[in-house]
Design goal:
three-stranded antiparallel β-sheet; mainly beta; globular; 0% helix; Rieske Iron-sulfur Protein; 53 residues; two-stranded antiparallel sheet
């Protein structure tokens, strides 16, 4: 994506909305929430651990 990350807060470049990447909660309205995923780095790339569907 094209958002910016400052500390634990990612900011949407289009809407200006900000979310805490550790909780997924919107910084001003905690009722708005995005799912969060574990991210890890290995020699051959960066991976996201997705839940099983």
């Amino acid at each position: 994506g094209e958002g910016t990350l400052t500390g634990n807060v990612v900011t949407c470049p289009w809407h200006g909305w900000q979310f805490d990447v550790t909780t997924g909660k919107h910084c001003l309205n905690e009722r708005l929430c995005h799912p969060t995923y574990s991210v890890f780095e290995e020699e051959d790339g960066i991976y996201i651990e997705l839940p099983e569907s």
